[in-house]
C-alpha cells in the first residue's frame, strides 16, 4: 500500500446505465499515468447508488481491463457489521488484494464499537484490510488510539486511509504504528505533508483526471525529493480544491468531462456541479497544464 491508489469513479451513459466503455478507458488512462493500485467501489464510485449486479459487473470490468497489472483494492464497508462480515465470507474475492472498509456511518458507534466492528471484519476477511476514517462523511472519528489498537491486534489490518483532514491525527498514528502498517492520505492536498511525516502515499480522487503529474509528485516525495515535489503540489493545489468545492465525485466528473474521458453524469441524489464551477475547473485544468 505505497504510492498512488486511484479511487475510480463510475461513468454513466445518457440513459443512466453504467458506461463500461468509459470505465475501460478510465482504467487504461490511470494505469498509463503511473498509478500504483486501483481502488474499486469506494465513495468516489457512487457505490450506494449501484445495484448488486452492477457492482459485480464493475469489479469484473476493472479486473479484466487491468489484467493483473496492478493490485486491486475493493471497497467493502457498511454500517451493519453482520452484513459486511457476510459479504466478506461469501463474496468472490479472486483477484482482490485488499478491502477498504469505512467506519460505520450514521450509527455513530463508540470507539469500542468501532474496534469490535473492525475486529469482526479482520476475522472474516479473505485478504488484507485497510481501515478508512472519513468523519466528514460518516459522522464519527476513529481516534488514533483505536487505529493503533487494531493495527497491533490484527496482522491482516495493514493500513489506514486517513481522511479526517487532520495532519496531527495522522502524525499520532505514524508516531506509534507497528512496523509494516501504512498510513495513507485520504485528502489529495494533504498528501505531500503526510508523506513528509512518513505516510505511504494517497488514495486519490484527482488521479482520475491528471494521474501523470499527480503520481510524479507523490513518487518524488516518497523518494525524499521534496524540493522537486513541492512545485508540482503547488501547481495542482487550486485545481484539486475546485474538484471538491461542490462535493465528490461531482467535481471530478466535471473535470473528466472537460478532458473528454466521460460524460458529466451522476446518479441522484448527486447532481453535476454548477456551470460556474464547471467552467472554473476547465480553466484551471488548461492553465495548469493538467488537461
Please name the defining characteristics of this protein:
13% strand, TIM Barrel, 12 helices, 291 residues, eight-stranded parallel barrel, alpha/beta
Task: Please sum up the structure shown.
With 291 residues, the chain is α/β, with parallel strands linked by helices.
Distance between the termini: 28 Å
- Total helices: the number is 12
Radius of gyration: 18 Å
Strand order of the largest sheet: 1-2-3-4-5-6-7-8
Low-confidence stretches: none
Q: Care to count the β-strands? A: 8
Order of helices and strands: EHEHEHEHEHHEHEHEHHHH
Query: CATH first level: which class?
Result: Alpha Beta
The major beta sheet can be summarized as: 8 strands, parallel, barrel
Cα shape: globular
Would you tell me which CATH topology applies? TIM Barrel
Share of helix, binned: 40-55%
Structural class of the secondary structure composition? alpha/beta
Would you identify the CATH H-level superfamily?
Answer: Aldolase class I
Overall number of structural domains? 1
